[in-house]
Amino acid sequence: MLSDNISCGSKLLLALPDDIFAVVTRSLTPKDVSNLSVCCQNLYVHASSDKVWLTQCELLGVIPHKDIIEWRKGVNSYKALCRFLVYVQPLIGIWVHQNPELGNVVYVMPGFISLVGCRIIPQELGPLGIEEGPILWSPVFEILGNVDGSSAFIFHGRERDSNYMYPGSIKGIDRSCNVLLLEVEPRQQRHGGKLVHSKSFVSNLSPVDTYSTKICPSDREVSKSQRLQDSKPPVPFSRLAFCDRKRLLEAVTSQIRVKVPQSGDGLCFPCLETEDFDILSERRLRLMEMYNSGLSTDPTQSDLGEIRKLFDNSQLHRDGCRTQSSKKKSLAGIFRDSFKHIIGKSGSINGSHEHSKSSSSSGNHKHAQFQEFLRSGDTIGLTLHASTARLSSYRAWPNMHDSRFALYKLPKQEPLAGQEHAGLWGGTFGWPPGKPSADKPGKALFFLLLSYEETQGQRHLIGTKILEGTHYVLHPNGSAMFIVNMNEPSDESFPWDCDGDSSFLDLKEVFAGEGIANGYGFRYPGSKPGSLFVFENGMLVFVWKETRAVLTLQRVNMQDLLKKGERVPPLPPIANFSYLTKSYSNVYAGFSNASNHTSSPRGFYEEGGVEETSGVVATRKSVSGIRWVVHKTDNPLSQWTDFMMLGLFCMVKLRCGHCKRLAPEYEKAASVLANHDPAIVLAKVDADVEANKELAGKYEVQGFPTIKILRNAGEKIQEYNGPREADGIVTYLKKQVGPASPEIKTKEDVESLIDDKKIFIVGIFPKFSGEEYENYMILADKLRSDHDFGHTSNAKLIPRGDSSITKPTLRLLKPFDELFVDSKNFEVDAMEKFIEESSTPLVTFFDQSADNQPFISKYFNSPDSKAMLFLNYDHAKQDLFKSTFHEIAGLYKGKGLVFLMGDVKDSENILEYFGLNGDQTPALVLQDTKGVKYVRQNVQADHIAPWLKDFTDGKLKPYIKSEPIPETNDEPVKVVVTKSINDMVLESKKNVLLEIYAPWCGHCKKLAPILEEVAVSFEQDPDVLIAKFDGTKNDIPSDTFDVQGYPTLYLRSSHGKLLKYDGNRTKDDLIEFIQKNRDAASESIEFIQKNSDATSESTSASAKDEL
């Protein structure tokens, strides 16, 4: 440091009063001021004054001036305070993870001489609204500032109904960090077990201490000094296999945890109402004492001997991969089991065969061995690493790694001129906005991040969902709830005149856009038109045009909301940082009962990763208890079913819309049934996995989702014909556990078993023996998945029918038609036929009643021809239509024709399917056993009978749903409708690539420009035609095309060969498919290739022009 050679500039600075010098340094950064202080001795004193560093603290803008004054009381100087603020400032903001799908949002904000990571709990809006109601949150981690400005990392978690802190170190914080990693790091012990860090602003600041667990590496023949001289670079934590990383984190946290006393479990930051800094200061000092008390001693010394034994005992290597017992263990037992697994999976001792299978991927990457990772140190501790990664993103949502214990920072835009609406917004669905209403007491709270994006010269506002307060996910995190073109004003009028407080609304401007469509999806969920309404009071409202669904939003300050919020206990430690298990349900639901939150109905499993057996790999075990099953042997379900008496086996395709709709209900049912005694287990099989495709044939899977009931350890497999919603699944399966037909002894039995709104079958017997009784029990067991059974020796207990019968009688009770019917034929086949015929209503009513859904499902699954009448129940002659239709249905009973009637209000979707609308009702629709339809619009009651007779006599002309043939069809991709499909496709003598699409389908929208490029490539080829067919507005010839989803692509060659396309949807792949499978014609393949190359060059040139 220079002391005597003071320059003229230095003299000038030294001559300035402290106040003026502090003003001058406002144009400098903390690093500049620090560099200035090393110029000479006198400047060092001048630049170290509290006034200068108070100014620097204010310029950072991390906390307001009044808080800076309070924080200063807990540190040595403003310079130390500024050191801490500069170090942690990059962490402040919104951090997210994709799982669970409802939202994993951690908001990092200043506490008191600390930084606090707060998890925002998915929740419903409180009675006081967003601004006034308390927001539920739980602590994830804290970074405490020490008196000298150094930092201490504390991780939070909850185990066995107690809150714990897990002290660790900070590996580093990049200035532009966007990934926050929870890791374990081996280190060399120095300076009495403490790590020394620099306190200068010139270099990157590092933590003052490490809180570590001492673990001796297993290679005892290598001395410590030799290990220190090892030239091999340290192995990053990320190189370990996921299972090893998880087990190691669990093992370390179990050893370093410190139970948090009540004094350390209070406020983390000042509340807006009180700002009690004395309480905050006391809590901070208590936490720092707890943190530092563990540094002088090794808290796990008692277990080191046992750990060394684990490395020496080769038997443990063989046991390491076995499924762990679910019984409760002591702390030491959990630690031992964790290391058994780690060593067994990754240890190099004895050349473990298991490791060779699990430690390498299909590429060149190979997982590091556990011994190799430990070799770089003699202590091991928990670390927080804030790093910078090159992350791609989609609509402001980063693309994340599924197997890293990480949080990802959202790039938040600030509201500036031209992007006034950027930032964080909160709101609910429904009108009026804000507070819950009497009819809707629980409104789910949504948080959206609004950002602007320039696309092809158009400025779009994108509302990205980051948190959803529902019980089951509607759309996953990162979904764009709406996209609005800010260059396209709209003249759409707002549907309401005033808000819930009868205040008139002052509309500022309206913009056209698209809102997310119903149906689960991420990048391509489909969209529906809508408008964004901007009001003078700052409120934003997006209204879906068709459904009139409304999402109201108001700008929120998350920091202020949390200061008024309510703290709830955290999750178990590892899940509390990054909840990696994909879940469609609200895994935080247990927070409503804080004292029992770890026993949430969705539960948390101690085991994780992959469980291996000889027959099944059960992976990705969800919080609800659903198991994912992968086929490995000839009896794929045997290992999974060995321990249970009853289970559901559901084969799904992860992109299937029906499967996605079932997923949250299936998961909720699994969570309810997880602890049922005897065991009821729910499992899923991913049909897209190659190893599982054999199961589809083995278990006769025709569509998705397919659900089977497995009984008696999988010996008996039945079709599942029960409800598809959670409560119905639970009720249905609970009834399947006990006897197929319970005995009815009392009136209480009758009340608990027989529901007046459902079918119930009773066997009445003088004695419970003999052929009739045995056949009845066989039938009850066979049909128990479809019907409820009971048997009795006292007919007087049965609510309907003859009570004086003395012979065996089969009685069917039903909520329609004649209400009960008897049979005395106890042949199994005869009883089954009797039940089938008697349980079908003469006329099934189509409505939304849950009790009626089994009858509707049975109707549409019937192999018979169908007669369906749709009318407005407010119609003046609706009683005449109902009586006439019911009378005709009786005439056709048992003749292969079943009847259904529906109100227009409940039948909009099915009318749309048949190409009809409400103005064309009363409408009679007939469908034969081959799927051919016949439609009579605006039918009269006295026309129904003769028209049905013409149908049975084969005199009617089929009805074909088709759009009009377009008058002009000169685009590269030709439009095909049902009326033109024969001429343009099936009989065209051309090679036709046909896309069957839906206008709302996101995948179809993505394919559209690609298909147009393909069409341009063949535009001059008279033998090739590229065409599209709207499957929602035209009847698809089902005897020719098998359409299970959109888009579906077929190639029909000029000679009549029909091939379905299942390849990649790229231009080159589609062209190659056409070239390979087209029939030879007058034009050569060389021409096609030449034209394709020319198009590619043109496209490339266009791209260069854009750049």
Question: Can you walk me through this structure?
Answer:
The structure is a single chain. The protein has 1107 residues and is an alpha+beta fold. The strands form 7 sheets. It has a 9-stranded mixed β-barrel with strand order 1-2-3-4-5-6-10-7-13. α20 (657-673) links the parallel β26 (646-652) and β27 (680-686). α2 runs parallel beside α5 and α12 runs parallel beside α14. Mean pLDDT is 76; it is low at 1-6, 190-230, 295-365, 520-524, 591-625, 627-644, 1082-1088 and 1095-1107.
Q: Strands of the largest sheet, in order across it?
A: 1-2-3-4-5-6-10-7-13
Gyration radius over CA = 35 Å
Largest sheet composition: 9 strands, mixed, barrel
Task: Give me the secondary-structure category.
Answer: alpha+beta
**Kindly, what is the distance between the CA atoms of the first and last residues, rounded to a whole number of angstroms?**
52 Å
Number of helices: 33
The percentage helix is 25-40%
What percentage of the residues does DSSP assign to strands (E)? 15-25%
